[in-house]
Design brief:
The chain has about 475 residues and is an alpha+beta fold. It has 4 domains: about 1-30 and about 205-280, Beta-clip-like; about 45-190, no CATH class; about 290-390, no CATH class; about 410-480, Serine Threonine Protein Phosphatase 5, Tetratricopeptide repeat (Alpha Horseshoe). Helices cover about 50% and strands about 15% of the residues. The strands form 6 sheets. It has a 3-stranded antiparallel sheet with strand order 3-11-10, with no helix packed on it. A 3-stranded antiparallel sheet has the order 4-8-7, covered by helices on one side. It is globular. InterPro entries: H3K4_H4K5_MeTrfase, SET_dom, SET_dom_sf, TPR-like_helical_dom_sf, Znf_MYND. Keywords: Metal-binding, Zinc, Zinc-finger. This is MYND-type domain-containing protein. One of its GO terms (molecular function) is zinc ion binding.
């Protein structure tokens, strides 16, 4: 099967190999240009997220015109086409879910369903009811790394409990609890969050071939989704012989934070160019700016480092000291106010929540560097609430406040940066700031046409908005001429 996969990848200008220090790697055997699709794959199995009041079609992940499966009362479909497309697999799942009592159904998380569907698909392919291909077969799942030897006992126990539940659901006499538990570990290390065009999470999918691709905090490619299909596009030139690399994690963070996340979730230490300066003076400075404290002199933009006595933090620019106890008090206020704001927001009181988050912002302005990630996240939340309240001017003001931080923490071709430019451009155009909108939308197009593809509906919509803004600007200019 490996030889067949290698041939299939070869047709796409790719090859893969096993390396002692990295495991499986995907390489290009031809040049790929920015925006070009390197590889795409439908999920071996997938499930939509399960959130209160936000059901989705199990086949296409649409949230419109949904009807619940009349038999199992668990799965939703947006129409007969999707239901029929999913029927071969759902037929067995439906029978299994229909046997569950209410207590068992409460334990039916997306992860449990994903595993149930995984074994059903394996069974159906082995019985040739569902076809298996070189890019779509259970042997690819078997080849995935589980890191079971590195998983702690608490997590192993959880996997065992989840495996037992899957066993209870399926009730197959020949199923292996050990294999189920190991597959949960594989899902943890290899499954991908399926997102919409604006990178909002919709569900989870397992893409065994895509999982061959390794991580870099400064990747040459990006993983996006078109429906459920995973699409990897080049965001930089990928010359022949280069390793194809994507990012596994949120890369807006200090080197030490990224390393910690990768170690905890994926059990490896990143050695990419962005991580190579770990512990060096410029890396320490950047970490302190992004995740540390600001100088207590509001006019000073210096960054702080812990003093030798561990009693406070010293500004590396002006030498002023911030006492540990003072910072502790402010941090306590931020934490308690954040908890209250989150509860108020969940209750639906957007205006009061916004006021509380602005209080948090004020505290953080005194506590954090202007490029602080915590401050950026707070402003993102205020931006979101302002949009929900349709306070477009405030939304634009907060969007603009986040842009400099995005530009600092994300590579120039990162889709999140492009999406923030897009949001800014839409708000500027809505408020009549046509020239500014053109600039923002142009920046968005430069990034998103490569990450999302020139011909995707999302990019076409973006280009249409840019063209409308340009036409409006031309009309205004010609009107002035008259």
């Amino acid at each position: 099967m490996e030889e067949e996969l290698e041939r299939e990848l070869g047709k796409r200008g790719l090859s893969y190999s096993n390396q002692a220090d990295k495991g499986r790697c995907l390489f290009s055997t031809r040049d790929f240009s920015p925006g070009e699709v390197i590889i795409s794959q439908e999920p071996y199995v997938s499930v939509p997220n399960r959130t209160s009041g936000d059901s989705r079609c199990d086949w296409c992940f649409s949230s419109s015109n949904l009807k619940r499966c009349s038999s199992c009362q668990v799965v939703w479909y947006c129409g007969s086409i999707c239901q029929k497309s999913d029927w071969k697999l759902h037929q067995l799942e439906c029978q299994a879910l229909s046997r569950l009592d209410k207590n068992r159904l409460k334990s039916l998380t997306p992860s449990i369903r994903l595993m149930v569907k995984l074994f059903i698909r394996k069974k159906l392919q082995s019985e040739k009811i569902i076809p298996a291909t070189y890019m779509d077969n259970y042997k690819l799942v078997e080849a995935l790394v589980s890191h079971m030897s590195k998983v702690d006992e608490k997590q192993l126990l959880l996997y065992a409990q989840m495996a037992n539940l899957v066993n209870v659901i399926l009730q197959w006499p020949d199923i292996s609890i050990k294999e189920i538990a190991e597959n949960f570990a594989k899902l943890a290390a290899n499954a991908h969050t399926i997102c919409d065009s604006e990178l909002r999470p919709l569900g989870t999918g397992l893409y065994p071939v895509i999982s061959i691709i390794n991580h870099s905090c400064l990747p040459n490619s990006v993983l996006v989704f078109e429906g459920k299909m995973a699409v990897v596009r080049a965001v930089q030139p990928v010359p022949r012989g280069s390793e194809v690399l994507i990012s596994y994690i949120e890369t807006a963070g200090s080197t030490i934070t990224r390393q910690k996340t990768l170690k905890e979730q994926y059990y490896f230490t990143c050695t990419c160019p962005r991580c190579s300066n770990l512990g060096q003076s410029n890396d320490i400075k950047e970490s302190s700016i992004l995740e540390g404290y600001r100088c207590k002199d509001a006019k000073c933009n210096g960054f702080l480092l812990r003093d030798s006595d561990n009693k406070g933090f010293i500004c590396q620019q002006c030498g002023l000291v911030r006492e540990r106890e003072e910072l502790k008090i402010v941090l306590g206020e931020v934490k308690s106010t954040t908890e209250k704001a989150s509860m108020i927001y969940s209750s639906g009181n957007r205006a009061e929540a916004s006021a509380l988050y602005k209080m948090i912002e004020k505290l953080q302005l005194n506590l954090c560097h202007p490029f602080s990630l915590d401050l950026m996240r707070t402003r993102e939340t205020i931006l979101k609430i302002s949009m929900e309240l349709q306070d477009w001017e405030e939304a634009l003001a907060y969007c603009k406040l986040t842009i400099p931080v995005y530009e600092r923490v994300y590579p120039e071709h990162h889709p999140l940066l492009g999406l923030q430019y897009y949001t800014c451009g839409k708000l500027e155009w809505l408020l009549g700031n046509t020239e500014d909108a053109i600039k923002s939308l142009t920046k968005a197009v430069k990034i998103l046409r490569n990450t999302h593809g020139k011909n995707s509906p999302f990019t076409k919509e973006l280009l249409s908005k840019l063209e409308e803004a340009q036409a409006e600007a031309s009309y205004k200019l010609s009107s002035v001429g008259y």
